[in-house]
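Page 37, continued from 36.
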């Protein structure tokens, strides 16, 4: 039931996203609107989704995934009813914008719910189950929408969401567990608003550009300018502002280097490094010749640990290493005088 609830929540979004486009001629006649005006029914839905989906992760973490999903399902279902009873094009555009805003969390949270219902080793299966169930709304949406418009009227493409939304709400409320909340997590409002302005302007430019002749239209030029300025502000703010969630330090600080255990480990690592270039294994020597195998490379510490127990070959240029290749019968080479200890008895 947890999987079914997550899939149904995403299913109603996809079935509405693609079925409304089939009813545009009927909606145009019902509202006595021009083709450019009725196209706002699609644009407003996309804008509502764009405005909310960027903050979905923060909303789920701040208020709880289950609560946000329940509010999204309830809001999407109610706005679907309002879209079906709208009496003017203005009302329909407003309700479609709200429907897109409430529908934005249905996709990411629905997929997250399905993924959490499976163990981590079955994430591929969970993704396939969610995709097969949720994206089937995009397959059956135009088919069901076309039949409903022909047999009844355009309002039924919205009414079909009511029973599906009710089932998804009840299943989520009864079976989906809540996750831990992080009420201390902050949201970067400046960055969010800049990103929203850029995404909304870009969406409107791409959605209306073909109908308006692209840059022959003043509206498209203004939207392109707003997109460039908003994304510039977002990038500049992101690069010059401390993150809302502190990131771990990529490089240890000086307080770590002062630890005596670390200093002893570094000295021992250097002794191991002296033994590596004379290793009898040709594969190891080839790795050491590679830049990654050098002391500054990422694999050098790993190689030191792998070959520390292997008897090295003599190095005449290093007197301290002479005699290491002569191991006692049935034993290991004597490493005591260079500060090395065998890892195995």
């Amino acid at each position: 039931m947890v999987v079914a609830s997550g899939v149904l929540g995403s299913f109603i979004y996809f079935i509405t996203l693609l079925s409304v486009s089939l009813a545009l001629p009927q909606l145009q006649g019902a509202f006595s609107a021009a083709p450019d005006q009725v196209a706002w029914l699609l644009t407003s839905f996309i804008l509502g989704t764009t405005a909310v989906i960027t903050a979905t992760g923060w909303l789920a973490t701040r208020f709880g995934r289950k609560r946000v999903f329940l509010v999204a399902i309830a809001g999407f279902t109610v706005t679907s009813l309002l879209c079906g009873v709208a009496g003017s094009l203005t009302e329909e555009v407003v309700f479609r914008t709200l429907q897109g805003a409430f529908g934005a969390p249905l996709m990411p949270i629905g997929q997250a719910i399905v993924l959490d219902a499976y163990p981590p080793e079955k994430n591929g299966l969970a993704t396939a189950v969610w995709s097969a169930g949720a994206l089937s709304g995009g397959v059956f949406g135009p088919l069901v929408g076309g039949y409903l418009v022909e047999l009844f009227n355009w309002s039924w493409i919205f009414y079909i969401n009511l029973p599906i939304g009710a089932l998804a709400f009840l299943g989520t409320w009864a079976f989906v567990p809540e996750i831990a909340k992080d009420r201390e997590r902050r949201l970067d409002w400046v960055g969010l608003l800049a990103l929203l302005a850029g995404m909304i302007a870009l969406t409107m430019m791409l959605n209306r550009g073909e109908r308006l002749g692209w840059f022959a239209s003043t509206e498209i030029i203004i939207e392109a300018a707003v997109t460039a300025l908003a994304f510039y502000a977002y990038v500049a703010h992101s690069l010059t502002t401390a993150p809302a969630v502190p990131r771990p330090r990529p490089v240890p600080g000086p307080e770590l280097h002062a630890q005596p255990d670390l200093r002893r480990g570094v000295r021992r690592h250097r002794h191991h490094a002296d033994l590596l270039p004379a290793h009898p294994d040709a594969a190891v020597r080839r790795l050491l010749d590679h830049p990654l195998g050098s002391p500054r490379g990422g694999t050098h510490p790993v190689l030191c640990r792998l070959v520390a127990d292997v008897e090295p070959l003599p190095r005449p240029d290093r007197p301290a290493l002479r005699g290491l290749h002569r191991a006692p019968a049935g034993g290991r080479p004597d490493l005591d005088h260079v500060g090395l200890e065998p890892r195995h008895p």
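Residues 189-212 form the longest helix (24 residues). Flag for discussion at group meeting. The radius of gyration is 31 Å.
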